[in-house]
Amino acid sequence: MQPDGKLPTDAQRRQLCEMMSHAFVELRMLGWAGKSEQAADLADAFHNLPTGMWAEDFSLQFFRDSFVGVYQRKYPEGRVRDYVAMVDEVIAMRE
Questions:
Q1: CA distance 42 to 72
Q2: Which of 14, 49, 58, 87 is the most exposed place for a label (fewest CB within 10 A)?
Q3: Which DSSP string do the residues of 9-66 spell out, in sequence order?
């Protein structure tokens, strides 16, 4: 459990779903390009989000730092989206 854990708002979950949609498209593109390791790493970054975002103790900061941040540090180039910036936008919606 993270100290900043909190159930995301409906608006935040809509944005997270949109982000997952972008990630699925990018996964497809990575598969077509033969980049299976990167595709697996992107899937790993997002695989807990569909259930996690419904948890009372979900931490957007932890998701950003421990999942999408790790992915982006490993692949600083060759990405379609800046998922860290997208999560930052979702976090800002709370304020």
A1: 9
A2: 14
A3: PHHHHHHHHHHHHHHHHHHHHHHHTT-HHHHHHHHHHHTTHHHHTTSTT--HHHHIII
Amino acid at the residue 65: D
Contact of 31 with 39, CB cutoff 8 Å: yes
Q: Are 74 and 63 in contact (CB under 8 A)?
A: no
Q: Residue 33's pLDDT is what? A: 96
Check if the beta carbon of residue 61 is closer than 8 Å to that of residue 2. yes
Segments of the chain with pLDDT less than 50: none
What does pLDDT average to over the chain? 93
**Residue 58 φ then ψ, to 5°:** -65, 130
Cα dihedral 7/54/23/81 (nearest 10) = 0
Q: What is the pTM of this model?
A: 0.90
In tens, the pLDDT along 72-81 reads 999 998 778 9
